[in-house]
Design brief:
Elements: H1 2-24, H2 31-49, H3 54-63
Length: 66
């Protein structure tokens, strides 16, 4: 339970940071766009550590409605 709570909080933080980044640069914010950006970050995480980040995966799945 505690790990899922931490993953959820981290996922929320990541989504919030994406939205702020897009807003700062005057770009449109949408679920699809944030999910796409997080997908790219997830690919980099897998390349760096060899496995997906649980919080990123949770955020991506929720944004895509899964």
């Amino acid at each position: 339970m505690e790990n899922s709570k931490v993953a959820f909080e981290e996922a929320c933080r990541m989504v919030g940071e994406c939205c702020l980044m897009f807003a700062q640069s005057g770009q449109e914010i949408s679920r699809e766009r944030v999910a796409l950006w997080l997908d790219r970050v997830q690919e980099e995480a897998v390349d760096a550590v060899g496995q997906p980040n649980d919080a990123l995966q949770l955020a991506i799945e929720r944004l895509k409605g899964r």
